[in-house]
Amino acid sequence: MGISLALAPAGARAQSASSADSSFCAFLPTVEAAIRSMGKNDSRPWLALLSTEPGATLFSPFGHVIRGTSAVAQRYDSVAKRFEPGHRTFTVEYLSIEVDGDLATTVAVERGTFRPAGSDSTMASVTRATMIYRRERGGWKLRHRHMDHLTEGKAAR
User: Fold this and answer.
1) What pLDDT band is residue 99 in, cutting at 50, 70 and 90?
2) Does residue 113 contact residue 125 with C-beta atoms inside 8 Å?
3) Between helices 69-80 and 19-38, what is the axis angle to 10°?
4) What's the CA gap between 4 and 46, in Å, rounded?
5) Is 34 exposed, middle or buried (0-12, 13-18, 19+ CB in 10 A)?
6) pLDDT tens-digit profile of 52-61?
């Protein structure tokens, strides 16, 4: 039986009754730090989170379906290069966290700012992100990410 945790305030962590939930909730700041690094032109922390097992996937905000760890890693590396180093703010509001044995999912709204490569201006971003994780070799790994841009006026309620 899985446990579903809903988090109200942005960035808040629910307390969990099981060790699986505790280990996953303790892992989430690592995910958030890796996303910040992506927006600062450094994909290495994010790539370290990717599953090495067959079946990794990415549904990008531009409609692409990417399959396989190598192809997914190449896409993330390419995305990180679109940003200037050192410029990124990021917060996450978890709408749902679910853990069931060795599988976990998060549904979140991600808000941040970044500076596109070659630009002097900072841009704001609000995205919806659903991620699926699996425990592999004793740690949590990202198996799938589906994200898209939140359209204006459609903020989470």
Assistant:
1) very high
2) yes
3) 50
4) 25
5) buried
6) 888 899 898 8
Quote the pTM value: 0.78
DSSP, residue by residue, the chain: --EEE---STT-----SSHHHHHHHHHHHHHHHHHHHHTTT--HHHHTTB--STT-EEE-TTS-EEESHHHHHHHHHHHHTTEEEEEEEEEEEEEEEEEETTEEEEEEEEEEEEEETT-SS-EEEEEEEEEEEEEETTEEEEEEEEEEEPPTT----
**All residues at 6 or more sequence positions from 19 whose CB lies less than 8 Å from its CB, including other chains:** none
Cα 33 off chain centre by: 10
The amino acid that residue 115 corresponds to is R
68 touches 56 (CB < 8 A): yes
CA distance 53 to 141: 9
